[in-house]
Amino acid sequence: MEETSAQPQEPGWEERLAAAEKERDGYLAGWQRTKADFINYKKEETQKLEEIARYGSVGLVKDLISVLDNFDLALRSFEKEGPVEKGLYLIRTQLEDILKKRGLEKISVKPGDPFDPAVAEALSEVESEHHPPGAVVEEIEPGYRMHDKVVRPARVIVSKDKGRE
Amino acid sequence: MAKIIGIDLGTTNSAVAVMKNGELQILENAEGNRTTPSIVALSKGGERLVGLLAKRQSVTNPKNTIFSVKRLIGRKWSDPEVQRDKAWLPYEVQEGPGGGVQVKMGDKWYSPEEISAMVLAKLKADAEARLGEKVDEAVITVPAYFDDSQRQATKNAGEIAGLKVERIINEPTAAAFAYGVNKESNQKIVVYDFGGGTFDVSVLEIGFDPETKEQTIEVRATGGDTHLGGDDFDKKIQEFLVEEYKKQEGIDLAKDPLAVQRLKEAAERAKHELSSATETEINIPYITSDANGPKHFQIKMTRAKLESLVQDYLDRSVKLTEEAVTAPAPKGAGFKLGDINEVLLVGGQTRMPAMQEAVKKLFGKEPHKGINPDEVVALGAGIQGEILAAKKEGRKTEGEVKDILLLDVTPLTLAIETLGGVATPMIPKNTTVPTAKTQTFSTAADNQTSVEVLVLQGERPMAADNKVLARFMLDGIPQVEVTFDIDANGILNVSAKDKATGKSQSVKIEASTNLSKDEIERLKKEAAEHAAEDERKKELIDARNQAESLAYLAEKSLREAGDKVSEEIKTGVTEKLEALKKVKDGEDKAAIETATAALSQEIQKIGQAEYNKGNGPEENNAGGQGGAESGPQPEPGQPQ
Prior knowledge:
The complex is a heterodimer.
Chain A: H1 2-6, H2 13-55, H3 58-81, H4 86-101, E1 104-107, E2 120-127, E3 136-141, E4 143-146, E5 149-152, E6 154-160
Parallel strand pairs in A: 2-6
Antiparallel strand pairs in A: 1-4, 3-6, 4-5
Chain B: E1 4-9, E2 13-20, E3 23-26, E4 36-37, E5 40-42, E6 48-50, H1 52-56, E7 65-66, H2 80-88, E8 93-95, E9 101-105, E10 108-110, H3 112-131, E11 137-142, H4 148-160, E12 164-170, H5 171-178, E13 187-194, E14 199-209, E15 214-225, H6 230-249, H7 257-273, E16 279-290, E17 293-302, H8 303-326, E18 342-346, H9 353-363, H10 376-393, H11 398-404, E19 414-418, E20 422-427, E21 435-443, E22 450-457, E23 467-475, E24 479-486, E25 492-498, E26 504-509, H12 517-529, H13 531-561, H14 567-583, H15 589-612, E27 632-639
Parallel strand pairs in B: 1-11, 11-12, 13-18
Antiparallel strand pairs in B: 1-2, 2-3, 2-4, 5-6, 5-7, 8-9, 9-10, 13-14, 14-15, 16-17, 19-20, 19-22, 21-24, 21-27, 22-23, 24-25, 25-26
Helix pairs in contact in B: 3-4, 5-10, 6-7, 6-8, 8-9, 13-14, 13-15, 14-15
């Protein structure tokens, strides 16, 4: 009997118990953290998936925008020659509608609007009789946004201060 | 848990990385991009713009658009670099107080620190928006050749932006961190950093003291060219295109701003495409027009052409690299090229295959790549940030925590043999363990009383080509539930349970993951080499299995039909059945398939005859239950 009651007195047991408890707490904390990380990760993934659903086609849409631009260049060129077959305009509208369904929206920049780098990129500067300095003189290529992201800024020519070099 | 972000404050672009949920990641800016142009402008409306917006208006506002300020930060006005740069920078630069440099934006003069601070403030704000928490501390990288004054100025820029700069680290060191260069040995490393506007080469010596476990990283030499970068490559292509068009059409496109813009984009795209393809087509419709109408530009460009255009740049970078490594101190590190243990590639332009090849040829070894070269420096800074944050909080870094909780993956697929000697995967390779998977199989033959469960390891589709880990018999019919369970130590426990009686058998396999690296590689290589042949074999087995089950169905139908169908039909079925039996175990897949199709047609006649007699089609679900093999058969519809 004496021997069994002496057993818990084994030297250093308190330290070992404390160490084990500390280790246990560490493991539990790590486990909880991992679990929380996982839950947060899942939330982020869901968010990311929503983003992908929203913007997933942005690469394709971006590539198609330049096709649309070239289509317009072709139409302008035909228009100079005379009346253009109506079907071509319908095809163009079709292409634009497809892109619109994906959330693409044209950014409206008109001559005279103040130049806004948030939606437009300046290609060059010219002096202008009709527009105040810093205003858009001409839109060279339209800009587009998808939902709230600018996928391509409008390319514009901006009027400059007269007498400035 | 406060985060310390890592910032690569570049000459042209900057990036931010941080450790989040145990993953090192690049933080996107407010515009949704992973890098931010290091440009600040005061717009004509008096608004301060930073990043992409500043870049978009730079053409109209060159005097008030400040870029490349990293070239000036912490330098003296008298510095030859400053004297060289002020000649081409479009904004005004003057000597500042104490012999420093000042730049003019609007009506005010700013120190380069203040301009850098504006970039850093945007990076900070965007990082906060992404993380959803305040960020007050950062690690910022600088080129290895930056002197104390340039480092101090960079640190000041951080403080002005409201960031406590916990540490300034060298860009090549950050790259070495990101690549996790082996920390426990002495090594010599070359970092070849070819960015948009600058080319830096650094020679590092990593020392490791095995007693104190302390690591030292020493920059032994730096070299490069501060005015050579990927943008020069774009310009070369653009010039080439303008020249070619002049030759083709006699029109100079360089004068038309829209044409120039379109050429610039086409040049950049061609450069990127030629990193993966050997030829690309540049196609710009309606690029201009003349008296005869619209003009288009269409030209093929090969990778060889691109390489010939930029060969001088490539040669120069190789020469500068060799110099930095081999020249005696202080010009170089005084090493032999063969002394170099690792070569790291940094900067977007290093994606170019010819550049990788040139570096490989110089050192006679494959350079490290794999991490996005535009992001590697920021990622390294992010690692340093996490180490510092952990130290402050007295915790382990998320990386170290990951090390303790390092979860292994199964290097090879674990499978079970099913009908016809096919290896049916249970746990695919690269699955993180611990994991478990249970699937129900049905026995192949009628009245089968036991199944042999064969546990396999390997990538080959046929059981015989894979390694057998264990085999055991289970008495039980007709459905067996097999469970593969791998614990965190890689010990595989396979159990099979007879679903009817609940009787089960199991086996423990200790060695499922401790294959040597070489062995794993060998097995994977074998699988790749035999892929086509294996596929053929598997198709043959599939055809045989189909033939087998149809033959079984035919026999069963004949038996059950009795006198309900005419002898004529019966003879027809029997003939086709015999024909199928003759070929079904052969090697000719087409013959098996033909015979199977023929029998299938004949069997339909039985059903038709029964239907005509008014008995209706007999319910027959014997579809997959044929055959005499003793292996279990997967039921794809019922994995549990």
